[in-house]
Specification:
- The complex is a heterodimer.
- Chain A is an alpha/beta fold.
- Chain A has helices spanning about 5-20, 20-45, 60-70, 85-95, 105-110, 130-135, 140-150, 155-160, 180-210, 210-215, 220-250, 260-285, 290-305, 315-325, 325-340, 345-370, and strands spanning about 50-55, 75-80, 100-105, 120-125, 165-170.
- Chain A contains 16 helices and five strands.
- In chain A, β1, α3 and β2 form a beta-alpha-beta unit.
- By secondary structure, chain B is α/β, with parallel strands linked by helices.
- Chain B has helices at about 45-50, 75-80, 95-105, 110-120, 135-150, 165-180, 195-200, 215-225, 235-245, 265-280, 290-305; strands at about 5-15, 20-30, 35, 60-65, 65-70, 80-85, 155-160, 185-190, 200-205, 210-215, 225-230, 250-255, 260-265, 285.
- In chain B, the strands form three sheets. In chain B, strands 6-7-8-3-9-10 form a six-stranded mixed beta sheet, sandwiched between helices. In chain B, strands 2-1-4-5 form a four-stranded antiparallel beta sheet.
- The two termini of chain B are about 35 Å apart.
- The chains are: A alpha/beta, B alpha/beta.
- The structure holds adenosine-5'-triphosphate and magnesium ion (MG).
- Adenosine-5'-triphosphate binds near residues 43, 44 and 46 of chain B.
- The site of magnesium ion has 4 residues of chain B, from α1.
Amino acid sequence: MFSRQRIKGLIKKEFIQLKRDRPTLVMIVMIPVVQLLLFGYAVNTDPKYLPASVILRDDTFLTRSIVSALERSEYFRIAGAVFSDNAGDARLRSGKDMFVITFPDGFTADVVRGKAPSVLIEADASDPTSVSGALGALQGIAESVIAKELKGPLADLAAVRPPFSFTVQKKYNPEGFTRYNIVPGLIGMVLIFTGVMMTAMALTRERERGTMENLLSMPARPFEIMVGKICPFIFIGFFQSGVILFLARFLFGIPVLGSGGVLAAALLLFITCNLLLGYLISTAAKNQTQALQMSIFVLLPSLMLTGFMFPFYGMPEWAQYLGSCIPLTYFLRIVRAVMLKGAGFADVAPNFWSLTAFVAIITLITMKAYKKTLD
Amino acid sequence: MDEAAIDVRGLSKSFGGRTVVNSIDIRVPKGRIFGFLGPNGSGKTTTIRMLCGLLTPDGGEGTCLGMDFRTQAEKIKEKVGYMTQKFSFWEDLTIRENLEFVANVFCMNRVSERVEKALKGLGLESRADQLAGALSGGWKQRLALAACILHEPEILLLDEPTAGVDPKARREFWDELYRLSEAGLTVLVSTHYMDEAERCHEIVYIAYGDLMAKGSVEEVIAKTKLKTFRVGGKNAAKVREALEGNPAVATTALFGEDLHVSGTDGEALKRLIAPQASENGLSLDEVPTSLEDAFIYYMNRAKEN
Ligand SMILES: Nc1ncnc2c1ncn2[C@@H]1O[C@H](COP(=O)(O)OP(=O)(O)OP(=O)(O)O)[C@@H](O)[C@H]1O
Ligand SMILES: [Mg+2]
């Protein structure tokens, strides 16, 4: 049915053409690097002096020492004291403060009694990356206060367990989209962007250059031509994902917790899915401009409805429904689970089946849409 | 009758309601070279595209190499070499890579050997690693020719293969065509060159979608019943002006100082020209009607309809 020699010949042709297409090559390398650096560093900034207010229900040497330690850490700028929970909430909601720090009644007494009370820190996590640095510093702040204040007769308190702690309550974005979370999304975006765009041009370019007539007059089957067209970009897709994972690991210290094999399988499926989608576009588009427009039409919903920008389960039901018709949704779930939570294949299997179904369906539609003639 | 390599009847195609090919019959016996003539936009390219399965015909039936050209296009493609009117090889591949690609797509064995042989035949061994896009127009044509006979097809469909090719290369190309046709290759070649048309075993003439004439060059000329006179001398061009618009005159053409005048009614034409010629002191004699005269005659007649 299919000839290996022919498919090899078709793949070789595409590789050679790609090799000579400088602008495209530059784009393939630059897109993941630039995107990651942009996102990575934009979110990596470690903002200081974030506005905070304090609800001080227990005014003692210890609580004052904690407050001044918070200020000394340079992460917190204590704007002042508020006196009710409602006032604190309002300041948080209006964005006047990013933190409200509450010391409960009898805090110091509880510390002395060894009851290990906690300081409640409510954080505005809608911008999770900016508060994450401050929250990360809390542990150190607690230790420095303990070392400084609990001396002499109180020293035993620190021996058994921490005499007090901070309880962090994230508001507005409990899932905490941090830069950890941005990496899987970034891989997905870069793969869609290059995958769909590149292959969307595949046939339109042949058509515009007049070489399509020649290709069609040869005994190459539609499936063989398709394989030839998308094969090089599967390698490209893996290369780009590799670049992102590598930079994420070595610039931002974001490791892949789960299995590399499961990740690779998800990549393969998702890359193929995008390439097929692009190829489908190129069978339908009359020229490259049209192909570009159609690609953007694919790109936008992937940005909006898949949990890349907004948390998936925070979207209205109809949007979730639309989102579940987009491959990126499933890819994101797999990669987030595997990279960040160390999930195994069994945990994410349903998403794999969805991606596989997309690949099969798009292939079928493409083969139906492919025109073997010029009319 | 000989076995036909191409045998189609009633071939028709219209684009957006405009009929471009109107119920054409073409029968090309095996091993023959058929010329395909017609003015620009007459439907030559469209016909050839339908024959090799690149366009779906609106009507018509028939066979190529014994296979139904409507349903077995994929099989037919393996045995047909099609050279497009516009250069359609990959300009960002080298000459060698283009040939290799063709060889692979046609699943040929001994790819590199055949490619080297084709390069040698072209005389392009030294430039084999140059991008095809960097070739001059004539060389592109020659590369395309070499590429479309690489897989040793049984039918060659050539759409103006020698446009822009120099005379020597053109002669070599025709020598090659004769050699291949002797070995059994069937050729359908569209051309606007009369000398090439005269080299064909037979020609098919279409104008604006209609088949106007077919047969050997002599037959096609004879069928016009044109008589042609040559007026020779200094002021032949003046005579032409005087004859302009006269219904007895079908075509006029200047060849250097000579004027050729053709018309279907020889006697009437002679009566018309003789006084003009003697008045200006010019010679007047009857000459054989050329294919070009016939070509223009057919074209004008097709326009009238
Ligand atoms: N894809 C198409 N869509 C619409 N009209 C077309 C298409 N292809 C060809 N035509 C029209 O069909 C007619 C015949 O075109 P065709 O290319 O077959 O002529 P041709 O005989 O090859 O001309 P030439 O000698 O200039 O190459 C022309 O009027 C052309 O405009
Ligand atoms: Mg043409």
